[in-house]
# Entry
Amino acid sequence: YITGTFLTETGDYRYLEGIVQGTELRLSAFDGNHAFLFKAALQGDSLVGEFWSGSSYHETWTAQRNEEARLRDAYTLTYLKEGYERIDFAFPDLQGQTRRLSDAQYQNKVVILQIFGSWCPNCMDETAFLADWYRKNKSQEVAIIALAYERKPDFDYAKRMVERVVKRHQAEYDFLIAGTNNKEEAARTLPMLNQVMSFPTTIFIDKKGKVRKIHTGFNGPGTGAYYEAFREEFNSLMAQLLKE
# Structure
């Protein structure tokens, strides 16, 4: 019996479990929406495997043990384009009222922008984390705004999907309907960013409205030590921004 996950630059595959039989490995997960299956065989010093997502997506993969292997720094992958200094947008909230980052309610506050979708498992892990953090810290000068990119370009559909997330996680921060989950289309709604590489992407803005950091992806609780490291980084950064 074996448990674990695969960590990528856009997130992780959450909680996988399976078996090792001889030289063969199998890991899988089903969360009610996403079904993942990894198979691999040991060949020399390598694993040679296949991956399936749902009933249609399939790819092959190989792996070698490397103690020095590292992903790129998640704070370097998404950034403001040259010529831009701030984030701005105009998106409807769940009541259909247009909200802007320049609205008075967000001024002189540390603002966290969460680029997410209700369909995205890593986004749900991050929403659980942010909802819990915000409940404990909402009395401070801070706001969280989730920008939802859903599967259909239909406001009523997107609203229903997001309302389920709000209810499930008892989230008390703001949710706006920003567009669809095509990354290129999402990037067009936020033209100041070099790209939308991952759902989620988290943007940290200081009290003066300056973008201080952008974190691509999310290391969820299934990643163990990587999740704990993110929690420490997040808490340290927010303590610093709130103190300024």
